[in-house]
Each structure stands twice: as C-alpha cells, then as structure tokens.
Structure prediction request, 840 residues.
Amino acid sequence: MAKPIFEWDYSSYPGAKKYPKLFEPIQIGNLLIPNRIKYAATEDNFNDHNGFITDADVAYIRRRAEGVVGGLCFMQGVYMDEAQKGQGYVGQAACWDDKYIPGLKKMADAIHAEKAVAGFQLMDCGRVGAVEVPAGHGPSTVPQRLRIFKPMYEMSKEEIKEMVQQHVDAARRGVDAGFDIMEISGIVGYLISNFISSYTNRRTDEYGGDIHGRMKSVVEIIQGVKEACGPDIPVGIRLCAEELLDDVRGNTPEESMESYKIAEEAGADYISVTAGWQESIVPVISRDVPMGSWIHLAKLAKEHVNIPVQMAYRLFLPELPEKAIAAGELDIWEICRSMIADPLMPKKVLEDRQDEIRHCVACNLCLARLFRDAPMTCYINPVCAHEHDENFFPKPVEEDDEKEIMIVGAGPAGLECAYVAAQRGHDVHVYDKEEALGGTILEASKAPYGDEELMTCINYQRIMCEKFGVEFHLGTEVTEELIQDEMPDSVVLATGPVYPEIGGTVSEGATIVNVLDVLGGSAEVGDNVMVWGNRKPGIGCALFLAKQGKRVTIVGKEKTAGFDVNPSFKWRYMIYLRQNRVMAYNDCDIEEINEGEVIVKTYDGYRFPLKCDTVVMSEREANEGLKAVVQGEGIELFVIGDALVPRNMSSAVHDGYRIGLRI
Amino acid sequence: MPVNTEKEITTLWRNLHTAQSEICKTYYRWREVAIEIAGPETKPLDVALKAAEMMGVDIGKNFLPRLNWLKGEETFMLNLGRQLAGMWASEGAATTVEQGEGPSEILIKCTRDPWPTAARHYGVPMEEVALTRERLFQAILVDVNVFFDTPLKIEMLKAIPRGEGEWVFKLYKDESK
Prediction:
C-alpha cells in the first residue's frame, strides 16, 4: 500500500479546481506523491569546491521546496568519485564519502520543512565532467567536439564496476541523509548517457555493442541502487528520448525507447524524459523553441513503458502539462528554469495567483554561468542565489522613513524598482511619456525568435505594482517644472538610453531612423538596410527586418556581434543571422553616410562602401537628461537601467530591484 | 572622401600575402630553433614530422564542430576535403577539391604553394616538405576518424616539392576496415 510522506489537501485551493490533474496524487513505487509537480534537479554551483553543501544551497532548495506545495523537490545531482572525474561543476555537491552526509541531511531537512518529497540525484558528469582534473572518463576515448570540455579516456571493466558501486554507495548515503526518492541522471552527455549512446560508446566488450550491451552498466546501477534503497524508496532515471546527435551518429529514437524499456525491466520506478545533449546542434530549450515542442517525446515514452513519465523542457505554463496529463501523455510536470525565475511558481498556480508569476524568458543565462564556473543567477529574478541573504528581501521602512518617490520611466528597471519600493511602504509614482508600460521592451519584444516572451516580465511587474499601490502617470513627460512642482523625496531615473548621432559625415539625402521606431512600426525602411550597432538591439532589429525580406547588414564597434548576449543563446543568433543572410561587419566604424551608401571603416583602417537606402541607429549611450535638475534641487537621486549604462533587460531588472531595496 | 576601391583592395591583398608568407617563415624559424635545442643526434625530419603530427591533431580538433554526418558519407567527405583545402588556401596555396573515381574518394589538388619556396630559403630538403604535408593531413584525420567512427585515409599522389608540378592528395575510405 503506497503511503505519502506528508498529507496535503488541495480541495480548498482555486488552482486545484482549475488544474485538477496537476494536483492529483500519483503513486511512484511505494510512495504516494500528493501532486504532479517536481522541481527537477539543477546544478547551481553554490557549494564549496570540495563538494560540501553551503547555506546558500540549503536556502535555495528550501525556497523551491516551498514552491512545489507537497510535490517532488530534487536537490542537484551529486558526483560520486573521489578522483573528481565525475564532477562537472565547480560547486557541485559531492557524495563519495560519509563525511558529506551531514550537509546532505540539511538539504533533505530543508525540503521536508516545507512538507515536500525530498529527491536525491546521482550524477556522474562523464563527458562533461572532470572540471577540476585534467581528464575525464567514459566508455570510449571519443574526442570532444567542444574544447571547453576535458579529454576523455576509456574506462576499464574494473573501473566500470567501481563506478557502479559508487552509485550504490552514494544512494545509500542519500538514504542515510533522509531523502525519500532516488534518481539516476543519464542525460545530456553525462556518463550514463555516454554509455547508452552509439556516438560515445564504441566498446566491443559486454558494455558496448548493441543497445542492450550499452545499457548493461545502467542496468547494474539501477539494480544496485534499488537494493541499497529498499522497497520504500523509489528509484527513477532520467534518460534521453531523443539525443539529437544524428550529425555524429548518435542513437536512433528507436534505440532510445529501447533504453526506456530496459530501464523499466531493470526496476526503474519512473522515467524522466529529456531531449538533446550539450553537444547537440539542435536547440532544445531556448526561447526560439516554442513551448510544448517536446511533449511528443513524453507521449512516445508513455507508449513504451508502464511506469510514470515525467518531463520538463519548455513546459512553462501549467496549461501545457495539465492538458498532457489529462490526455495520458505525461504523468508528472517537471520544472527547472521556471522555478529558478520564480521559486513559488506552482504554489502561485495552486493559489490562483498565476498573474503574479515571474516567468522565465528562456535565455539560459543560468546554465551558461555554470559552464563558466560561476554561481547560478537568473536573468530576471534578482533574488536567485541570494535566498540565504535576508538583505535581499524587501523589508518595511519605518513610518518616519516613508518617502514619496518619483520614478521616471516605466521600463523594466523603473517598474521593478517601483513595486519593491512600494512593497516596503514608500509612496511610489511612476511617470512615462508613453501611454503604455514597458519602455524599450515594448519594441524589443517585436523581434523574432521568441522575444515576445520578454513582455512577461513587464506584465509581472505591472501586476506587482498594482498590488503594492504604485501610482502610474502615463503619457506624462517629466520636466524640470514637474520635478519642481512635485518635489519628491527621491527621484529614480529609469529613462532608458539615448541614441547618439553618428560621428561621421552625414549627407542631406541619407535616411536615418531609430531602432525603436523600426521595431515599433512607425519608421519607413527601404529594402537595403544597414543597422548601426552589433549588440542585441541591433541583432534583434536586423532579424526583424530580414524576416520581412529586406537585405540587411550589421555594422558595429564590438569585436563580435552579440557581445552582450549570453553564450548559451548567442550561438542561436549567429545561426539565425546566417540563415537570414544578414552580414555583420564587426570592429568597424561609420565614416560617412551618403544617399544610398555608407562608408565603413574597419578597425585597421580599411574603408569600403556599403550600399543601403536606410540606416538604423541602435547604438546607445547613458542618459544624462534630468540628472542636473534633480541634483540642483537637492533631491536624492538614483539612476538605473540603460539610463545608467546601456546593457540588457536583466541588468535593468537587477538594478531596479536593488535600488528598490535601498531607498 | 570617396573610397578608392582599387587602392583598398590592393592594400588588403598585400597585407594578406605578407601574413601568409609569415606563416611559412615563422614555422621554419621555429624549426631551426627546435632542431638546435633537440641536439645533433636528432634528425631534422623527425622534428618536422613530430611537429606535423602534433599540429595536425590540434587542427583536427578544430574540424570537429564544422563537420556533420547528417547529409551522408559523400557530402561528409567532400566537406572534409574542402576543410583541408581551405586551411591550405589560407596559408597562400591555390587549391581545388574534386570528386575522385568513386563516391568515397576525394582529390585535393594544389597548383601553387608558398611552402616549398619558403623552405628553400631556410635550406630545408624538399622531401621533408612533402612528407610533412602528408603527415599533417594524416594527423588531422586521427580525431576526425575516432569522433565520427569513420575509416578515412589520405594519401599523397603528387607533390610540388618532388617536382611533379602539383600536389594531389587522395582522401578515401579504407574499405578493409
């Protein structure tokens, strides 16, 4: 008889009526899970470089445990070998010795404190491991395609046996630490997936050959871990449904489904379905991939196994898993990045506060930082990675310290600052000369390949501003006179950037337009366009115009186009620029703009003419407007977002949040 | 000020050719240093071949992200041939890639190569130039073959430094494997 760890009753919650399938219990092994929600194990680089758990990680996971409202909450995958070949991240938790158990227990206790089911994941990073040592291990010595990863060496049979035992020993430690459910990670290029894939497993012994041979070590791990865990702790496995490695002769989808069946036969209590490897050339989870694109893989898995099937991968809205569960295509909704962006996301769904969810914008900054040995952060959630620091949460101001705050600019920086300051008790007024909220995001969200999702940030901020009583003065341009009339206690300038005039010679017949006017649709643009500026605004605008069939060339000062885009997303933009035949001249300046032609000058002095009928200005500078006026009146002044230094939406949000806390 | 296209291109070309010439010269200067450090017991050819091997393996790693099996073996081999030829062309050689006798055979030809000329200035035997190029190409294939699980080989059929008028390399699939 399956039993729950904690009792939950969702019957009085509006979200449970709206999404009945998400809040329906499910049995996994001998465990009854109260709902269908899982925070999937995610590396965060918060732990110390010896693998010991830190307070930052405990606080991080506790917040996510609160979010799953009784569901599954998995801590990050642990590496299991003292030699550290399986360690893929500098701050990855370790579990190769009993000395790690006290720290791991803190994680389990933190999850239990929120009445959630504590999940433990075993993860040897294999091909993407060995982050602190010169070489990694794998089934075969297959060279790395990406140079950031270490060389691989073939494991002997003895080493494979040892690796299996390491999984078993680590599972036992997880049980001793108090975890309720066990998971083996075999995805995206980690060791188990290396054994399963025909791409990386070229062995001719019993651990290689056909899919059954390639699954042999996996079967041994599942059986060993099951035995170590006993009947009351379910053991699941994460496996690729589609490796997306056809270009290097990886597994066929049929082989992947066979691996699912073998895992089930070996005793796995559930399958977590994934797609793609770190090395895949196909995008899987970035913003340009429409939500719900991979749900067919969960459905396929359901057709091949009888154990519960779980999946994440761009299921950012509860409607998608609710529908899939109702249709019998999925059993459990896994959430990763959506709960990095908003740890309480499913809780808000349950409480029917869906409009208060801060949605992930699928930029992959969180993951990009991990591969660069940096702690995780979130593009749009300033609190992420600071959950352990009480100074990062809004505190009410004393009654005597309440201020009247004028925020100039209703973009992401201004709005973020506004609701945080208002939440603390200040009287906040947001002014914008436009009638709509959003600042430059209104135009930026018009760019193709999923940028409309950027507006979810503005929608969230609007709701929070309304919730905390921020007063909007839209269609109102802030002038010196207005500031003198209002004489607020503080002014926050979130006015966005200015677009400087071009430095070179400009002839009379030249057509020059602004990037915002182009994206907003108010500027007339010819068929041959040069976009001045090779950062994200220029790239977005170039793709927007190229999609309309225009011939577009980007010219910019940065050494590479997309200098300000995080590397996990930048490669997508580079491909889209090529696909849309957008030529980029980097490290260049504009010498002259003539009618029908621009003279471009390279960094080393070469000059060449570029035919174009329209020049789009996307280069930005800090906005000095109103600063002198505010300072002249002796009013407390803050400058945030692009008005301070033109960067990106993330910087705007983070600036806004921090100043909102400080005022 | 109007752009004088001819002047811009001429300057650009001149600088490109100087840079290409420097690639060869830098290598041969380095070779002299390596031979001197290796001592009189070491044969210069052994130094050159070892260098070609190490450089080839490293260059081969750079090829991996640019190759793709999706379009099949024939396209894969053609692209590999183009990568080899392109690399050589960037050093100043005039190269072409042609289909060989069968679908699994590619010919990489070079009718003009700055390497033998530079070698002559540094007193390098012409046979060493030929063997070094062959070893370099062979070493490039090492990681490519392991990565894509392919049995590809490359063979030198003609060499300019041997007085044969052109370089011809045959890239082919080793059917015995």
Remarks:
- Residues 157-177 of chain A form the longest helix (21 residues).
- Residues 128 and 147 of chain A are 11 Å apart (CA to CA).
- Chain A has three domains: 37-370, 396-498+622-662, 505-617.
- The longest strand of chain A covers residues 235-242.
